[in-house]
Design brief:
- It comes from Paenibacillus prosopidis.
- Keywords: Signal.
- The chain contains three helices and eight strands.
- The strands form three sheets. Strands 1-2-3-8 form a four-stranded antiparallel β-sheet, with helices on one face.
- The N terminus is likely disordered.
- The protein has one domain.
- The longest helix has 17 residues.
Length: about 160
């Protein structure tokens, strides 16, 4: 069970952020939901901020899902072990939760992690908090390299208009 947890955390973080950062409004460019991948559109239509899986409960902590242009987005994730054991040890990278962001079109912060394996013991009922952090990379030859350079340099999460 514990070997699947890093992938689970990544998948849940992706799902939560897709759901929480989505909007059913057209972007400034006039694009509609039809240009967004249907799976992403479906998840944005019914956001779920709490997920339970294999003895864990993960929650995306965000106060709202609509933001003004230039408004910082504050969020974190919390993980609670709700399994039957008194405690469990999970193995994975130091960054146990990897945040991934997408608008279902062109904006895609895939998230990155190291490959080290570090143990983490979680007691039953214990809640761990993970503040949002950006991770990812880009190719310097990418036409959007300047955008990504600026995006990763900003400490706050500021998304482009329509994202």
């Amino acid at each position: 069970m514990s070997r699947r947890l890093p992938q689970f955390f990544t998948a849940v973080a992706l799902l939560l952020l897709i759901c929480a950062c989505g909007s059913d409004k057209s972007g400034e460019s006039g694009e509609t939901e039809e240009t967004i991948h249907p799976v992403v559109t479906e998840k944005m239509a019914e956001p779920k901020l709490k997920h339970k899986f294999d003895g864990f409960e993960m929650k995306l902590n965000i106060d709202k899902t609509d933001f003004k242009i230039g408004e910082p987005i504050e969020l974190s994730a919390s993980l609670n072990y709700i399994g039957e054991e008194d405690a469990i040890t999970v193995w994975g990278p130091r960054s146990k939760v990897i945040f991934t962001l997408t608008d279902g079109k062109e904006f895609d912060m895939e998230g990155a992690s190291t490959m080290d394996l570090v143990p983490l013991e979680i007691a039953q009922g214990e809640t761990l908090e993970f503040p949002f952090s950006k991770s990812g990379g880009y190719d310097s030859d990418d036409p959007d390299a300047e955008f990504w350079k600026k995006f990763y340099a900003e400490k706050e999460l500021l998304l482009p208009a329509g994202t």
